[in-house]
Automatic annotation (TrEMBL):
UniProt-listed SUPFAM superfamilies: FAD/NAD(P)-binding domain
Main location: plastid
Subcellular compartments: Plastid, Chloroplast membrane
Pfam families recorded: Amino_oxidase
Topology with respect to the bilayer: Peripheral membrane protein
GO biological process: carotenoid biosynthetic process
Name of this protein: prolycopene isomerase
Amino acid sequence: MLLPLAPARPHAPALLPAPPAAARPARLWASGGLARGAGGGVRRGALASEKPPAVAAAETAGGGEEAGGGGGVYDAIVVGSGIGGLVAATQLAAKGARVLVLEKYLIPGGSSGYYRRDGFTFDVGSSVMFGFSDKGNLNLITQALEAVGRRMQVLPDPSTVHFHLPGDLSVLVHRKYEDFLNELISKFPHEEEGILQFYGTCWKIFNSLNSLELKSLEEPLYLFGQFFQKPLECLTLAYYLPQNAGDIARKFIKDQKLLSFIDAECFIVSTVNALQTPMINASMVLCDRHFGGINYPVGGVGGIATSLADGLVDKGSEIRYKANVTNVILENGKAVGVRLSNGKEFFAKTVISNATRWDTFGKLLKDKELPEEEKNFQKNYVKAPSFLSIHMGVKASVLPAGTDCHHFVLEDDWNNLEKPYGSIFLSIPTVLDPSLAPEGHHILHIFTTAGIEDWEGLSRKEYEEKKEAVANEIIIRLEKKLFPGLQDSIVLKEVSSCLPCSPKTHRRFLARNDGTYGPMPRGKPKGLLAMPFNTTSIDGLYCVGDSCFPGQGVIAVAFSGVMCAHRVAADIGLEQRSPVLDAGLLGLLRWLRTLA
């Protein structure tokens, strides 16, 4: 199907059917053009030999660190081009701001990037794309692309994930909500009422969120306006803001095995169990998968970041690669610019850090005493574990007909859910888009949680041997559980160089402190109450991404980007604001976080 991301005509269909798999174009870049050979056909290798327009443009302009500073004062500098940073940047550019994005790596996307080997195109991170439909207000990826005139061809996934759990519990999360309910109730018929009440509460929260125009919760004119328009919805969200999914589930459900299943549902959202997962976060994901569905972009997830980067450039802003920001420059306590590792400096009215809060305040501002607000954040949250990723190309014959795209495997013991290497997440995006692999082959992207401590202090030889050993153990587990003959079917397994990706790799290439994928509550949180927003205690400095409200996940970081752009736009005069109300609201929010 095709998501038309220009403003739609009244009553125009928002989603157009995708062509059959055999006729599908191998790639559709953000510019809307296909890479074609001399004879007019689509070239399978086009992406491997051609750079995305934004990357090529940046290199032509001398966009790396070898380029000097200058360019005048920008409205905003964004440090890092993850999805949160790119959404903030493109939203600001669409409002008329002049934005500079500085990316350490060679391509945009961060954890949502891509790479290629021997005809295979691999997603760096998750292939499960929420917020990528054509309806509602929580389709934040779609809206971000639309803001800069981009569109992407997507493929609907008939399911979200297939759970393979202890006691031979197998649950397929169907795209249709009714089908999912029927399947889950068939496994737990004695808990039918509890299932309906728990997931019904999720829908109550989701529908409230989905009815609102989502902007910054730190902007009082927006908040008051939404409250007067949708008072019941706002009160519903306020009621559930300090609550967690596990507590809500236990109000309705008694069966421990079913509660453990809900833990697994939340774990793939937040890498913690349901008792530690804010109810609002759980509701966004557990309902959006049915409301808008999971839709995979043709050509791979990396195309999302590339499309956003191209749209940013089209709006007159800039993105520079190989630009390693090492310091935020302060003048009289205000953030006014950044310094690169080669000493070059860039200046702006505001600075937005897409780095984690640990990296922002521990590295980019390492000479400044940690603000009290950040001390409170670190009291409430620890760094969530990283992931070990294995990317493989396999013969298509090893997968049974009708194999689902996404799987979650926890074989024997529910207690292993949150332990390192205890559970396995598997994506097979070629089930949806065969163009990602050579004909007759599939991609398997396998990942499991892993802590940085398991990978520290090893020699290079020990490090490589450990990666190989851990990867082989995980492959054997999948072979026993899902795909007999898997080991013999492997034609490509990235073990040398930087793959499988260990936590050390994530720290090095994604510039994430200890390879973390975001914050995790130290104990049982009060929902989202303690999660910091985009503003910081340093004037002119903002944060965006998974260590800001509402947390981890593609839809969450996109939400963070939208909120950040709105707050920055108000602060630099591109949106209406009230300084008096601002001060009162920010004081209230900080007080509430101290209570949490």
